[in-house]
Amino acid sequence: MARLSITMMFFLILVVTSAYVPSFAVEETEPKKLWDQCVVKISPNCALDIISQVFGNGVVSIPCCQELVKEGKECHDTLIKYIADRPTLIANETKYLQKRDELWAQCVSVSKSI
C-alpha cells in the first residue's frame, strides 16, 4: 500500500469524520444539507479516490465514477469546494475546481458509455 501524505491523511480524516460525526465537520454557517444529503451518498473508498484525483494524482475507477454521477453534480461541486476552501488549500482553489469539473465530465462520459 502506498504511503499516504499528510494532506491525504487530512482528507481521509475530514471525509470519515464528516460522514459519521457531522457535528464535528460542519461549521454553523454551512448548510446542514451538505452533510445530511451529500457525504453519505458515496462510499468512503470512492470519496478517497475522488479526493486523490482532484487534490493529487490519483485515478477514479469506473465504479466510483458511477457513484459520483449518482451522487449528483451539486453534491460533488459543493463538497470539493468545501475542501478546496480550507486555509491550507485556498491558494490553489482554481486548479482544484478545474480538476473537479474535469473529473465530473470524465465520469459522466464513462457512465453514459456503460
Automatic annotation (TrEMBL):
Domain Prolamin-like: 37-108
Signal peptide bounds: 1-19
Pfam families recorded: Prolamin_like (PF05617)
Record's keyword annotation contains Signal: yes
Species whose genome carries this gene: Eutrema salsugineum (Saltwater cress)
Protein name per the record: Prolamin-like domain-containing protein
Domain of life: Eukaryota
Key words of the record: Signal
